[in-house]
Specification:
One of its GO terms (cellular component) is plasma membrane. Pfam families: VTT_dom. Keywords: Membrane, Transmembrane, Transmembrane helix. This is Cytochrome b561. InterPro entries: DedA_domain, VTT_dom. By secondary structure, the protein is mostly helical. The chain has one domain. It contains 9 helices and no strands. The N and C termini lie far apart (about 45 Å).
Length: about 190
């Protein structure tokens, strides 16, 4: 895994790093274990003027990759999706997620798209559970844009000094923000 991580990080230094970012963002949303954040961080630090372009490319490619993951779940769950989920240690959770997607698929996709939870797991499960495709697409766009544009904004504004915080704690911050968002909607609904 370390070699895969290092390889992904080296792609950020390549003259065609934006294309590689698109590729990594696409495959990470359906089966690749290394998140595109690993490339976004050094790319934005090196060229802050391109922060929004970098975030936009990561968002678009990740949503397209999410659609590929959705297709794996919807069209080839037994042959491809289930073995991928088994390899990620998530196959046993499929029945639980089937009900979750029926009841609250929006929140599952939003949560996985923002937090450190593997987005690929949710994209495959969303397709396997038959989540409404339009809801999936809109939620994936919102979630990935929130994640990548906030990351780019922090790096653009604070630069290299915030890198350590992002690498160590941003996942926790995104998780807390997501939980607060859910809490706010629950409070509004029941008050």
């Amino acid at each position: 895994m370390k070699r895969l991580y290092d390889w992904t990080l080296r792609l950020a230094e390549h003259p065609h790093a934006l294309w590689y970012l698109a590729f990594v963002s696409f495959i990470e949303a359906s089966f690749f274990p290394i998140p595109p954040d690993i490339m976004i961080i050094p790319m934005v630090i090196a060229r802050p003027s391109r922060a929004w372009l970098i975030a936009g490319v990561a968002t678009a490619a990740s949503v397209l990759g999410g659609l590929f993951g959705y297709a794996i779940g919807a069209l080839a769950f037994d042959t491809i999706g289930e073995p991928l989920l088994t390899a990620m240690g998530k196959a046993d959770a499929m029945e639980q997620y089937r009900q979750t997607f029926t009841d609250a698929g929006f929140w599952a996709v939003l949560g996985a798209g923002i937090t450190p939870f593997p987005f690929k797991v949710i994209t495959i499960m969303a397709g396997g559970a038959g989540m409404n495709l339009a809801t999936f697409i809109v939620t994936a766009i919102v979630a990935r844009a929130i994640r990548f544009f906030i990351l780019a904004a922090l790096l653009w504004y604070f630069g290299a000094p915030i890198r350590h915080f992002i690498e160590k704690r941003l996942g926790l911050v995104f998780t807390i923000i997501f939980l607060a968002l859910i809490g706010g909607f629950v409070a509004i609904r029941f008050l």
